[in-house]
Write a structure and sequence with these properties.
Blueprint: E1 6-10, H1 16-24, H2 26-29, H3 41-50, E2 57-64, E3 67-78, E4 84-92, H4 101-116, E5 121-127, H5 131-139, E6 143-154, E7 157-167
Helix pairs in contact: 4-5
Length: 175
Amino acid sequence: MNVDQVALRPIAEDDLETLTRFSVEPEVAGLFGWLGWSDPGRWRRRWAENGFLDAESGLLLVVHGAERLGFVSWRKSLTSRTSYCWNVGIALLPEARGRGFGTRAQRLLAEYLFAHTQVARVEAVTEFTNVAEQRALEKAGFTREGVLRAYSFRNGRWRDAVLYSVVRDEVDLPG
């Protein structure tokens, strides 16, 4: 499959079953994404409320043609009293991992956010041991900024994380 054909699109109602799998199937969420059982109905409620798109956050489906690969998300992260950046994330289905789709999707998301919002920075945080995601972020144009000690809690332990960012001047936007 050609990774250049990966695209992002808004979530449709028939995509909700795919999203729900990340809440109810540990093997779909994966080692770094599984944080325990969570409310599978939250996907449908949020979709009905705003289609996963509002001023504070968003979620888009990652697709390759008609094939659903997973999703990318973003949320507002305050950087001062008067400014913010976007913090982004990704979740891919097991069969889509390790094939370059995540790199392409994260690059597309950064381009989208810079094209349609006024932020100067997009950042991502991943577990220190998630080397595959670190490589994907670097290939997508993100720069490693540092280690965040005891940043997130997963599977009974506090985990270190790595902070990455890309700034507006590092992304070529069309037009």
